[in-house]
Amino acid sequence: MLDTACKSLIAGVAALALLAMPLHATAANSTPGNELPVEDVQTFAEIFERIKRAYVDEVDDSTLLRNAMRGMLSELDPHSAYLDQDEFRTLRESTQGEFGGIGIEVGMEDGQLTVITPIDDTPASRAGLQSRDLIISVEGQSTDRMSLQEAVNLMRGEPGTDLEITIQRRGEDSPREITLTREVIRSESVRSELLEPGYGYLRVSQFQNRTGEQVRQALARMEADAPLDGLVLDLRNNPGGVLQAAVAVSDAFLDSGLIVYTEGRLADSELSFSANRDTAAPDVPLVVLINGGSASAAEIVAGALQDQRRAVVMGTESFGKGSVQQVMPLGNGDGLKLTTALYYTPNGRSIQAQGIVPDVEVVRGRLEVTESSRQLRESDLEGHLRSREETRERSAGSERLRDDYQLNEALNLLKALNVVGQRRSAAG
């Protein structure tokens, strides 16, 4: 028999069901979806009562109801979640670019806690964590059946404290146990430098509130002395972030046309964003680097520049996270993160579970120069005749080029595009 509390619960939920109906709805003319199923409400109340009466440990009503809400959201998709006050604050902090932890973006893939990407220059990246690593335990606790938010809460903490995780890398037989020391993660989302004279490198590690402004400032610095002959926009292992920042970065290279649009069930979830005429670098030859760690906002930028034929996208297929999460404050100070729409590229491609396929596939590799690759040349001979032209010292180039095969290929492609462009101009 149900006790008085559970009968009251059924009555309360049933009352809410009636309030949720349109005023004109009745048992005879109501349509599916307008009312709560009373039988399921009764089953919920029965389970609630049995847990209260028979579970091995006593559990208070508030905990049970919050767990029910968490479960209701977690079963929708990997990104919807109920956020308590601490989790809600942590989410806001991460968009500002400062939080305490190990510097890692994680998600659920086939029910397993998976590394999407480590953030640049953080304990996670320095320890060598890679995209697609499976995290099988955190602080000795198995991540099996652990929610995404629970895992994030365990990994974040006070700077200077240690965190033990166990990962399983694809292709390896044995798991790895790794100890990391938490830091205050102040992630600068934009870095830039010249790879060689005339060829710029722009790294965006995640999309924060000021990323668009920082990209424009970086472009201005690189073009201070002379216009760029080419630019590599590196979005590898970029987990995404703020939608408006992705639009702003795309807009830095586009002077017209659609950037991204969203579609959902509600009218306010259907949005579209287009480029403005005020563009920082409308004509610089551009190569965008992506990989399996490029997700969400990074895929929006790559997809927009690809569809607009503004850039050559190079690397490997991106992650495929194309859903929009709206963060809503609740009356009790907690928050709700709910998937409300899907992203689409200018040509109408859905990013969700599809990802961005590069124009030129280049897998990750290591560039090695063999000893025999340096052949004897005329200039090496003793007493050789010197050219009448002044000798020019060759630039050693950026240290980034030494071990990054994909980046070298992007630079080579930019040089080839310039050669083709110059010859066409000369022919014309």
TrEMBL record:
GO terms for cellular component: outer membrane-bounded periplasmic space. Pfam families: CtpB_N-like (PF22694), PDZ_6 (PF17820), Peptidase_S41 (PF03572). Residues 88-156 form the PDZ domain. Keywords: Hydrolase, Protease, Serine protease, Signal. It comes from the Bacteria. Residues 371-401 are annotated as: Disordered. GO terms for biological process: proteolysis; signal transduction. Residues 1-27 form the signal peptide. InterPro entries: ClpP/crotonase-like_dom_sf, CtpA/B_N, PDZ, PDZ_6, PDZ_sf, Peptidase_S41A, Tail-specific_protease. This is Peptidase S41. Belongs to the peptidase S41A family. It comes from Halomonas salipaludis.
